[in-house]
Amino acid sequence: MKTIIKNGKVITAGDTIFQDILIEDGIIKALGKNFSEEGCEVIDAEGTYILPGGIDPHTHLEMPFGGTVSSDDFYTGHKAAAFGGTTCHIDFALQTKGDSLTNGIRTWKEKAKDKAAIDYSFHIAVTDPTEETIEEIPAIVKEGVTSLKVFLAYKGVFQVDDTAFMQTMTKAAENGMLTMVHAENGDAIALKTKELLEEGKTDMKYHSEAHCEAIEAEAINRAVSFVEITKAPLYIVHIASGNGVEAVRKGRRKGLPVMGETCIQYLYITDDALDQPGFEGAKYICSPPPKKEEDKKAIWEGLTDKTIQTMATDHCPFWFDGTKEGRTPGKELGKGSWDKVPNGVPGIEDRYPLLWDGAVNTGIITPNRFVELTSTNPAKIFGLYPKKGTIAVGSDADIVIFDPEKKHTIEASTHHMNVDYNLYEGMTVTGWPQKVMVRGKLLVDGDDWLGEAGFGEFVARKTENEIL
Ligand code: DUC
Ligand code: ZN
Ligand code: ZN
Fold first, then answer.
1. Cβ atoms within 10 Å, residue 95
2. What CATH number does residue 6 fall under?
3. Cα of 122 from ligand 3 centre, angstroms
């Protein structure tokens, strides 16, 4: 099976070149011009940009959380991802307390295997960092799971203490594994939550107060200090605060191996969204929550000065109204008090075109930097490169044929995510994926879905995580 994509402008992190792409058996076989078209399917991509498929390094599909389960599974989430230009993602498998890391990964592999339509991999979230758990790390690496996450938040649920954090990151580094951290101070959140609730402060906006900027910044500063103490590399997930960005910047200037991720919602949304009449603010409740205008500005700066390496989503959707038939319970669990609202927002379908519209069309970043943030850097940091994350001979043919002129209005009624609202409802963006392929198979052709459950593959990752 051979395909030629011709007449498009191929944009990678390093180059922008008019060249044709020859694909054979799902792999990019050659780049150049004037390929023989005999026996090939030919896609004329005149007027479009050919980009590496997006890699979302931070998602939570079908995740049990907040008394329910996130509403996208490995089929619906993958279909939505593909329509939005994402061809691979790394989801978080959770360790159950008292159980092994291996079983956590096994459980998530089961969830994915018959449903997956795009390629995927897993990080393991360490929630019970006992001696046995830490000793299990080398075995996990052998399974191709080369990154782990710890939480400094969610006291009594996922939170680990500083000793466990340092021990885990040290052991991970010794085994070529990258540690990731959800950096918010869980003790401070628990205390603030108690105080706010005792004062009868139950409106949605108080979620922002319980997860205020200083609570995130303290944890990020602490995490960066631990990099200095242990010398182990660290990737800080979903940075939402200006002082958090600054802590990473300072660490990097000292030469510490610390990297930062932000999520698309933090570029567009502020805490005003939680402060709306009635229950509307619940749609925006996630942790960390979006912060102030000045934090948003600082995150944009972090993207342009390369303090931040990746753009993710933390995709973790919950129905706004989960009471309808066939739905899992959703945000309505928190009617009456913000602390009962399941934490998480949708975004897997929106990330790639929203960043293009907001950052490339406006001239804030180049198309090459866009590719870096959405695909190449996640691939390099998490050991997927050069199989994924670029358009090069020998790479998987994970390709987005992107129409830079196409206008698209984002609406829950037309999006593919399995959730009844969209954070960007009514926003019109310019630039939208026209065709999307994974390993040479066309999954999206305009509005048509050609993907199949079971086509997506688990990707075992290498330990050569690059420190960018
Ligand atoms: N934050 C969220 O909002 N949802 C999932 C997990 C997390 O850390
Ligand atoms: Zn998190
Ligand atoms: Zn997350």
1. 23
2. 2.30.40.10
3. 12
